[in-house]
Design brief:
Blueprint (H helix, E strand, L loop, with lengths): L1 H37 L1 H7 L9 H17 L8 H17 L1 H12 L7 H26 L1 H20 L4 H15 L2 H13 L5 H25 L4 H22 L22 H21 L2 H18 L4 H7 L10 H20 L2 H25 L2 H4 L3 H31 L6 H30 L5 H28 L16
Length: 510
């Protein structure tokens, strides 16, 4: 009798338990159905606004799983699917944004007042890059690097279409500004994706090496092709827009933010169902953006690296004016000569970047000091060869020396431009994207002042005689000297060990 009662009671509780499981199953299925209704595209575009606080614990567990899996996958080859996909994407983006560099001479033939505004055009482009870093940079951590990369590629396509439809010099300058504004955030996106995938695995430097090499190879291959199509410069601009769509497709189809997560923002937005859009963005400003900006701006490391980054960023942005420099110093066919800076940077990444990845901290510092010295000498050589008295001695020989100096200048800034800021950025936690963007923003902001104010003022006072370019390149060399001192001192105090007795090796002995 007692056994019968226990058996019936057990069946009763088993029925209740089964009903509870069925209800949980129905609830789970309805929740999944609701998520499917959002649609893949709308979730991709606006899914960052629907993060729930309840998922924080799950995200922490997934982050731990990601960390464990990344440590287990330390044997991942250098040229793996992630590195190759990101390298291909950034290569097509670099090819797309290289269109204005080679089109400047062809556009000058149609817009007569554009030739006299070459330095202002370069300054506008660099200013667009700086503003793009500062405005779009925080969105990387909020929305996710993958989303921002895809969105910026779409906007880059529209900007290149606007360039193809330009009818005046002012429209062309605005288009160049928009091209840089939309595309400049893509490298920080790649830095964040690599840091998330490779944390703890020792493969981060290899990922930076492959993707930075892809960036330069894209520009290296695109500029000669664009040069051959210069008479149809509007078609070239439209071709750049098509390449931007290719880059967008690669990242959308083959890249995810984390090893096991399609979207994994570093600093995600927590949304409550009862909040409206305005209240949501107020919380985002108070809880996400302001603390991140305070964290970045209060860091001495950020300011040290950002100011040191200005010199290499200025040399990197000089490719926007190299065609005009060669043209005004006697080279009539100058449209494709900006490719030599990309050749120099590519060689620097292949040779010096490979050596940098395998050396000790002190050997790295000595390598960087020698690279800076080579770029400084090259800038002073470009300044000297711009003087008419020197250039007229042997024009053909001087043209060869100018090309060699451009290659050496690009070779010297490759490692300081790509490797060092990226290595430092991996230590900024959930603010990696903002750090990478703001570091580039400070560097390109200072370089826009150099090209727009100093070099532009020199060219207006000595238009067409080469003397203005001599003053301009001398100013670039001086900025490079100051930034090299900051960068080498930073490497000494933050990467190298103290010498015997606790003293450090300063720039004087480096």
């Amino acid at each position: 009798m007692l056994l019968g009662q226990l058996s019936s009671r057990k069946q009763h509780y088993q029925t209740i338990h089964d009903d509870t499981k069925d209800k949980d199953k129905l609830y789970t299925e309805s929740k999944e159905e609701k998520e499917r209704i959002m649609g893949r595209l709308s979730h991709f575009l606006f899914g960052f606004m629907y993060e729930d606080d309840d998922d924080d614990d799950d995200d922490d567990l997934e982050d731990l799983d990601d960390y464990s899996s990344s440590k287990m996958e330390s044997w991942t080859p250098l040229y793996n699917s992630l590195n190759l996909a990101l390298a291909t994407a950034i290569a097509t983006t670099a090819a797309a944004e290289s269109a204005p560099l080679t089109l400047m001479a062809a556009m000058s033939d149609q817009f007569s007042d554009l030739a006299s505004l070459s330095s202002q055009t370069a300054a506008a482009a660099v200013l667009g890059a700086a503003l793009g870093k500062f405005i779009n940079g925080p969105l990387i951590d909020l929305m996710g690097a993958r989303r921002i990369f895809v969105h910026s590629s779409l906007l880059l396509c529209l900007s290149l279409i606007f360039l193809a439809l330009s009818q005046t010099a002012i429209m062309a300058i605005v288009a160049c500004f928009l091209i840089e504004f939309t595309s400049t955030v893509q490298w920080p996106c790649i830095v964040v994706i690599l840091a998330t995938h490779y944390r703890g695995s020792g493969k981060y430097e290899g990922g930076i090496f492959v993707t930075s090499l892809g960036s330069r190879m894209g520009a290296l291959l695109a500029i000669p092709v664009y040069t051959g199509l210069l008479p149809q410069w509007r078609v070239v601009a439209l071709s750049g827009g098509w390449l931007a769509l290719v880059s967008c497709s690669i990242v959308y189809l083959y890249v995810q933010d984390a090893p096991h997560q399609l979207h994994a923002p570093q600093n995600p937005i927590a949304r409550h169902p009862q909040e409206g859009t305005f209240r949501l963005w107020m919380h985002v400003l108070e809880d996400n953006i302001v603390p991140s900006v305070r964290h970045i701006c209060a860091s001495p490391t950020f300011w040290w690296v950002a100011l040191a980054h200005a010199g290499s960023a200025t040399v990197r942005s000089s490719e926007r004016v190299l065609a005009t420099y060669f043209y005004e110093t006697g080279t009539k066919e100058s449209a494709g000569l900006a490719v030599y800076l990309s050749i120099g940077i590519t060689l620097g990444l292949v040779i010096a970047g490979n050596a940098f990845a395998s050396q000790s901290e002190r050997e790295r510092k000595h390598l960087v000091s020698r690279l800076y010295l080579a770029s400084i000498v090259a800038c002073y050589a470009l300044a000297a060869m711009a003087l008419p008295a020197i250039h007229k001695i042997a024009p053909d020989l001087m043209r060869i020396f100018q090309i060699m100096a451009v290659v050496v200048a690009g070779f010297g800034i490759a490692v300081p431009l790509y490797h060092i800021p990226s290595l430092v950025g991996a230590t900024f936690g959930c603010d990696k994207g903002m750090y990478a963007a703001y570091t580039d923003g400070v560097g390109y902001g200072l370089s826009s002042i150099v090209w727009g104010v100093i070099v532009g003022g020199s060219l207006q006072g000595h238009h067409g005689d080469g003397v203005g370019w001599a003053y301009g390149w001398a100013a670039v060399a001086l900025l490079l000297i100051l930034s090299s001192i900051l960068m080498i001192e930073f490497m000494e105090y933050h990467f190298c060990r103290p010498r015997h007795g606790g003293t450090y090796e300063t720039i004087i002995f480096a």
